[in-house]
Structure formats: structure tokens, C-alpha cells
Amino acid sequence: xxxxxxxxxxxxxxxxxxxxxxxxxxxxxxxxxxxxxxxxxxxxxxxxxxxxxxxxxxxxxxxxxxxxxxxxxxxxxxxxxxxxxxxxxxxxxxxxxxxxxxxxxxxxxxxxxxxxxxxxxxxxxxxxxxxxxxxxxxxxxxxxxxxxxxxxxxxxxxxxxxxxxxxxxxxxxxxxxxxxxxxxxxxxxxxxxxxxxxxxxxxxxxxxxxxxxxxxxxxxxxxxxxxxxxxxxxxxxxxxxxxxxxxxxxxxxxxxxxxxxxxxxxxxxxxxxxxxxxxxxxxxxxxxxxxxxxxxxxxxxxxxxxxxxxxxxxxxxxxxxxxxxxxxxxxxxxxxxxxxxxxxxxxxxxxxxxxxxxxxxxxxxxxxxxxxxxxxxxxxxxxxxxxxxxxx
Amino acid sequence: xxxxxxxxxxxxxxxxxxxxxxxxxxxxxxxxxxxxxxxxxxxxxxxxxxxxxxxxxxxxxxxxxxxxxxxxxxxxxxxxxxxxxxxxxxxxxxxxxxxxxxxxxxxxxxxxxxxxxxxxxxxxxxxxxxxxxxxxxxxxxxxxxxxxxxxxxxxxxxxxxxxxxxxxxxxxxxxxxxxxxxxxxxxxxxxxxxxxxxxxxxxxxxxxxxxxxxxxxxxxxxxxxxxxxxxxxxxxxxxxxxxxxxxxxxxxxxxxxx
Lengths: 392, 258
Fold this sequence. Notes:
Radius of gyration of chain A: 20 Å
Low-confidence stretches of chain B: none
Oligomer: heterodimer
Number of strands of chain A: 9
Shape of chain B: globular
Shape of chain A: globular
Structural class of chain A: alpha/beta
Mean pLDDT of chain A: 91
Strand content of chain B: 5-15%
Largest sheet of chain A: 8 strands, parallel, barrel
CATH architecture of chain B: Alpha-Beta Barrel
Radius of gyration of chain B: 20 Å
CATH class of chain A: Alpha Beta
Number of helices of chain B: 9
Distance between the termini of chain B: 51 Å
Helix content of chain A: 25-40%
Number of strands of chain B: 10
Helix content of chain B: 25-40%
Number of helices of chain A: 15
CATH superfamily of chain B: Aldolase class I
Mean pLDDT of chain B: 92
Largest sheet of chain B: 5 strands, parallel
Number of domains of chain A: 1
CATH class of chain B: Alpha Beta
Structural class of chain B: alpha/beta
Distance between the termini of chain A: 62 Å
């Protein structure tokens, strides 16, 4: 009698005591090179099986992002659209980023705000924050994403707390994309009304991560990798994940992002998750993408995520071209931004200051909203109640 | 005799309740609500935006004259649900509340412990409480005991359109309940709705199956017809299903000799 064959490969497993292990324990069991090769070696048969399944595994996800799936983009798009419609309906959520500061103590080879870039630095004052907030409110936005670099002395927890407190009367839903913080610090911000935190790993290639982040707190790969764990511990409503495409092979980075997502979902089951798709964009002091990700690749990845995870929120920024955004909006995306400014004070206070990266879709909020409605979707501005967590 | 459904102080001649999320436009939602003939529509408090008069889901619904049932979607605990119910009462001027507490944002499955806790508090505060719950017969009795005016067990995971996966438990709930039983989630087609009504449910609540269909207005009408047909069939008492064919030579014919 032979033993029952089973594979633990890519399964998220936990110790019997549940909460003690963090993501690195799972992560280190997967070699980058093996994952990359395994995606490359996926066959048409693997793709067809992945397409036909009702519940898909990470191995199916690999097949769907593999080169072998390229001839099946239409099938993937059809399924992605149908699943998204059933789970979310014919609605697209609008949000806007608001940059508070471009001060940064990190050196990141790809970023316009990197420490060694000789650009004027600015951190918005209370008055300036309120001006920017009033502008976005006037455009109709109710979900807002606050963005900073990493300058803990000037833009630390107390600055963020103050910023949230200032804008909370005007917006129902407040997210941040800032330096990684500790669990207790996240709890402090949640008490002020913070709903979600976006933190991208940039790349899951541990060695290359070090090359792209040679200096600053961000150079600590593992501290960043465990940020979603700290957020989960804090009980945050939503965690946003992603990799910066262009640094390393996008397929392998996406596999690790999906692995991260699957781990987090099981462990922090009360939290919802979103995925963003930042691609390297031209910026001051620019790094050319090492691995180019085409629009077709990005579409394939969006479909693959939706086929893997029916519930994960897929978010599209103004980094993408108008034509791409117009077409992809019906195929799996849940939330979208418009006329974003990626410089502090970029809306009204200091429109001329240097941007973190150039956006590609510069159309106005009204134009984007009209485009969404033309596609047969309702534009949702408000889908949260700021009193939910803190009122009692 | 008119077939009227009574919940708390309200009477309904339509047994189809309708959800208002997921529609592609407020205008289409309004037309579907009207086509459904429904007299009660749920509305997510988190989507209500009193400042935006024209686009606001609440304002659009108000114009139809339909009864509004705010839900607490988005809350994770009893405490938050109680807070949301009070907010909804103020914003929508109704003391009716659909109690939804789902700490799991993926499948939106209801938390029975928190739901029972919140129901007890809200009933005491004078709310008409309509709790969304698993098809759990014991929980339904417990909710009844604390004063919930109806129970809203799910037929299948919400939004799944899978139909009456919990039918065996729904039948027990219907048999035992002294308050109206409204099958709330998972109904994906008019035939599912008819089946729920034939089984004796007092009403059904439909959202995804209408909102995401090819023609929401026509589908709303189809559901209205199915709910009526199912209800009429239940009241007419279905002929029994025959489990065994009758043997042409009866097995007990030998007994006649005795």
C-alpha cells in the first residue's frame, strides 16, 4: 500500500497555535527562481483546467498569469466580468489621492521623492490640508487616500493623526499610503477614523529589494513584509497590497502578492483586501523599467486576480492610459481615481511642485464619471459611514 | 380573503422585498423597484448621502413612495450595529432596521452572537428589528424570544444566486416560527423564489438576481409573478408528492384471505 500522495506546496499552513507565525515563515518556503520557472512552464492544459474550475488555487493563478494563458485572454475577461458583476454589481467606486508631503528619508531607486533627488520638499500645513480637502470635496469625492513619503520626524504618527482629524468631517472613508507603522500606531490612527492602509511590497525578490532600497527605514525588507500582519493585528477594515511592476518579473511578484493575500485572508478574516497595480512611470531622476509590463499583461493579471479571488477589490489609478481605463473598467475593476495629483498641494496649494510620478489619464473627474455611466455602471461616491467604528 | 402579510404595525400585499444595491444606475433601480410591485426596499446606510440630492439612492427611492428598510451593512459588532440603527433612524426617519452584522467581509455571513445581542438592545429601544441570519432554527427562536418582529434566514451565501441550499433548515424554521420568515439571500431565479414561497416562507428578499440580470425591470416583474404563484400554491396546499408507485399486484392482497 502506498502512502496517500499530497503536496503542501503553496498551501498556506499555520501552527496549531494559530497566530504566532508571520508571513515570512510562509514566504521563505518559496524560492523566487522556482516560482518563476513554475509559472514559465505552465501549459495550455494547466490554463484550461484553471479556467474551468469553480474554486481556483494559487497553482491555477500561476497558470492564468503565465505566457501559456495569453491565447485565452478573451475567456478570462468573460469570466472576470461575470464574477465581478455577480459579486459587486454594476458599480464603480471613486476615490482620490491627496499627497501631504514629499519629504523622505529613504533612497528608492525608482521614486521621485527619493532622499537624494534635489527637489523642493514640502509638507502641507493644516490650512493647506483643508484647502486641498475642500477642492476634492467639491469634485464629489467622499473616499480619500492620504499619501506621504517616509519622514518620521516631520510626518510621523502625530502629523497623520492631525491630518485625519482635520479632514474627517468632510469624508466618509479615509485611507493612507504612508511609511509602515507599528500595530499600536495603526490603532491610534484607526481611533481617529482611519479605514484602510495601502502598503506595497514593491518587490518580493528579497535580494533585489535591497538593491532598490539601499538606505532608510524602508531598506528593512522584513519589517515592510510584516506590515500587513501588524495591520491585521490592529483589526483594520481594509489592507491594500501590490508590487511595483517594472522592478522584477511581474508574474513572479504577482504570485507572491497572491500568496500574501491568501495568507492574510485566512489569518485576518475580518479584514477586506485590495490590490493595486502600480507600474513604473517616468519621474524626476527616473529608473527605466527592468522588466516591461505591457497593457495586455496588466489586463491578464487583473483577470487572473478576479478568477482567483472573487471578493478582492481591484483598484486602478490614473497611471494607466485613458483608452486602457475605458475598456478595463467593465472587466473586473472595482475602484478608480481621476485627475490625481501626485505632489503635495498639487490640487490648489502648489500645483507647480514636482510630482512623484507622471499620471497618464488626465481627464477630469466629471469626464471619468460620465465615461463610467456610459459603460452602464453606477458611479459610487459614498460607500461607508464614518460613524460605524467609533460612535458608541 | 385578501392575503396580507403583517410585520409589526405594517401590512404588505406584496411578499417580494427588494434590495437596492448593485444596480447600474439609480433610474434603473427605481424602475425595477416599481416593476417589482414591492412595498419594502432595503437601503444600505453607508450608501446614503443626504448632501447629494439628485444622485442619492435614498432620494430616488423616496420618490417611489416605497417603504424603506435601512440596513446596517458594514458593521462588525453589536455595538456598531446599534449605533448604525440609531443613525439610520435619524437619516431615514424610520424605526425599522434590517440588522446585518457580518464581520467576514468576503462571504458576508452573519454573526449569530452579535446579531442576537444587538436585536435585544434594539427591540428594547423600540425598533422593528429584521435580522439577517443563518438558517439556524434555534437562533430564530432565540430572536423571537427577544422580540424580533421577523426572521430573515439565508437560502445560500449572499449574492451567490445558488438558490435554497438551506431548504431543510428553512422548513424547520417555517414550521416553528411565530413571526414571519423572510428568505433573504442566495435566491438566484424566480423558480427559487417560487420554491421558497411554496415551502411556506412569508416573503422573500431579492437583490443581486434582479440588479445584475440582463433586464432588471423585466426580471423584477418575473420575480413578482413567481412569488405570487408560489404563495398561491402554498395556500392551495400542494398535492402530496408520491414517493412510491403503487404496485399493480398489491403486496398485502394475501391479507384478504384472512
